[in-house]
Amino acid sequence: MTDLPAPHRRSRGERLRAKFAKAPYSARFGMVMLSLYIITALFAPVLAPYGEAEVIGKAFEPWSATHLLGTDQLGRDMAARIIYAARNSMGIAFLATVLSFVTGGLFGIVSALLGGWADQVLSRLVDALMAIPGLIFALMALSLFGPTVVNLIIIIAAIDATRVFRLTRAVALGVVSQDFVEAARLRGEGTLWIVTREILPHTLPPLITEFGLRYCFVFLTISALSFLGVGLQPPMADWGSMVRQNATLITYGNVTPLLPAAAIALLTVSVNFVVDWLLQITGGGRDGR
């Protein structure tokens, strides 16, 4: 009797390639564009033809071989500014989103685990914060504490952490009621051990998909604040502030101010395409947001 060959077990790379091959065209487009954005942000000093705040010409010069997208109101190269803005806008939004998930996710899990008065206090506090419109809260806070990069990250993270708290708490409540969590309590395991070993691994899948959606909201909020003049401050390049600073060109039929706006829209659409595909293959949902 001949031995049957052992079934071939695909490696993780092969499984990822198989999933990518089955991905819809929208998800593939989103992944390609997102990769280009990340590469641009990481290698901005190499890709940009000029420095971020370098004045190299006259104000509002037209598109040319020297300045592919013309110059802005101070004579800075628009192409270089758009490239550097990818690093600033995307990097700050990423840090703010990570901070919001760390704080909101931690308090959401602890609230679901402790229950009782602790859960009620945290939930009512979050409800009170969510009653204030996020953009108005950010405008007031930045006007009070100053529009620095650190303040911007902390304030945006505090606003978004309330949404993350609600989602994490809703998911964690379903995990806390499971038998394996009760067994860990009966064994005398500490709260930190239960959170990191039992609850967190079961709440990660919906949180990972939600991270992309929250990143879009954070990114758009930062761009809106920069457009209003209280976000990233000069000489830092930011797509939102670039639209505001060069808006007068639209009056003369110049579409240059629309380019940073298009960069904002394209990044948002690309991230949403990828997140929608991840929701489909993981069976995740958007409840509790």
Description:
Helix 4 packs parallel to helix 7 (149-176) and helix 8 packs across helix 9 (191-228). This protein has one domain (25-46, 74-282): MetI-like (MetI-like fold, Orthogonal Bundle), CATH 1.10.3720. The protein contains 11 helices and no strands. The radius of gyration is 23 Å and the shape is globular. It has helices at residues 12-22, 25-42, 44-47, 78-114, 116-130, 134-145, 149-176, 179-186, 191-228, 239-245, 258-282.
> Beta-strand level of the residues, as a percent range?
under 5%
CA(first)-CA(last) distance: 59 Å
The low-confidence parts are 285-289
State the domain count.
1
What is the CATH first-level class name? Mainly Alpha
**Helical amount among residues, as a percent range?**
over 70%
Total helices: the number is 11
SSE order in H/E notation? HHHHHHHHHHH
CATH second-level architecture:
Orthogonal Bundle
Average pLDDT level: 86
SSE-based structural type: mainly alpha
Largest sheet: none
Give Rg in angstroms.
23 Å
* Rough outline: globular
Number of strands: 0
Query: What is the assigned CATH homologous superfamily?
Result: MetI-like
CATH topology: MetI-like fold
